[in-house]
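Weekly modeling sync, notes
Attendees: S.R. (lead), two postdocs, one rotation student

Agenda item 3: backlog of single-chain predictions. S.R. asked that every request posted to the team notebook include the full sequence so nobody has to chase files. The rotation student volunteered to paste the first one in as an example of the format we agreed on. Action items at the bottom.

Example entry:
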Amino acid sequence: MRAVVANVKAGLAEGDDGVRCCFVMHALTKAALEREGLYDDLAKDARFVLLPRQQYVAFTRILARAICLVTDGGSNQEESFNLGLPLLLMRRVTERIEGLGENVLLAPDPLRQIEQKALRTAPLTCSGR
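Predicted structure, as returned to the notebook:
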């Protein structure tokens, strides 16, 4: 988890273009971040907005303003597909087909896969955002 957070922070620092990471998390994720000593550090970082799980409409509003989504949740895969939002799905497999081969990238090893994709292609973008 520490490596993931460090890479996200490094990615945000590279652009320094005002992009922020909206981190919507389960209570278990928050507890893991606290256990690792990462939660308070993220909470103090102006580039991060830490939020608990959201009701559907509020979460959809967040997604509508996002440039991409990183998740391990299959239902988020469906919402991302419907919005045309690039998605890194942090799973080895998914039972859903929405977006596979279009806007969804399965990532059994997300950090390595992000790095390899970044070396081969331009960054993921959403038109009109």
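Discussion: group reviewed the output briefly. The first strand starts at residue 21 and ends at 25.
Action items: rotation student to repeat for the remaining queue; S.R. to check formatting next week.
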